[in-house]
Structure formats: structure tokens, C-alpha cells
Amino acid sequence: MKSFKAKAMLAFIGLAALAFQPVQAKDACATLLCMYGEVTGNGGGSSCRGPIRDYFKVIKTKHGIPHPGRTLSARKDFLNACGGSGTKSQAKKVHSKFGKMLFSPF
């Protein structure tokens, strides 16, 4: 009887550990790729909806009011997390076109 209880407890702990996995962070590189595609006129279609949504979800406020300057800075930080060579110039083009927009034009 004790071995059954021990096995049941281990199974429960294992299932609980699987249930409480951390949420995956947004992929800055996928977002950069999709947003740069929109800048150059080569949109990624339906596969880019999520990454583009992630970009436009980054909104910073001041006293509860959306603040374009702070939003631009936060979006820069988000895309700069991608790193790699050449991504800075792509990110700069994305920011110049979409950085201060509070809502997605797509």
C-alpha cells in the first residue's frame, strides 16, 4: 500500500511540474523579420500575425495615457533583443515607420 501511495505522489508531482512550465517569451527575431518584411513590401502573410501583434502590444504609458516616445523606446529594446549583425539597420527602418504607432495598421 505504501509503494502505491509513493508512486501516486511521484506521478502527481511530475504532472504538476509539467503543468506549471514558464510561459515562452516573445520571439524578437521573428517579430523583426516580419516587421521588416512589411517595411519592404514583402509581408509574411498569416504566419506573421502573431509576431506583428507582439510588436504592437508593446505600449508604454504615462499617467495611464499611451506615450509615443516611451513606446518607441520599449519597442527598440524589444527588437534589439534579437541581436546579430545587420539587425540594427533593419530595426531602425521598422522603428522609423511603425515605432510610434499605437495601433497596428494591418
Q: Can you walk me through this structure?
A:
A two-stranded antiparallel sheet has the order 1-2. By secondary structure, it is mainly alpha-helical. It is globular and about 35 Å long. The longest helix has 18 residues, at 2-19. The protein is built from 5 helices and 2 strands.
Characteristic terms for this protein:
106 residues; mainly alpha; 5 helices; 2 strands; 61% helix; 4% strand; globular
Low-confidence stretches: 14-24
Q: H/E series, N to C? A: HHHEEHH
Query: What is the arithmetic mean of pLDDT?
Result: 79
Ends apart, CA distance between termini: 61 Å
> Numbering strands along the chain, what is their spatial order in the largest sheet?
1-2
Q: In this structure, how is the largest beta sheet organized?
A: 2 strands, antiparallel
Helix content bin: 55-70%
- The total count of helices amounts to 5
- The tally of strands reads 2
**Structural category:** mainly alpha
Approximately how much beta-strand content do the residues carry?
Answer: under 5%
Q: Work out the radius of gyration.
A: 20 Å
Give the CA-based shape: globular
Task: Reconstruct the topology from this structure.
Layout: H1 2-19, H2 28-40, H3 49-57, E1 61-62, E2 65-66, H4 68-80, H5 87-98
Antiparallel strand pairs: 1-2
Short overview:
This protein has helices at residues 2-19, 28-40, 49-57, 68-80, 87-98, and strands spanning 61-62, 65-66.
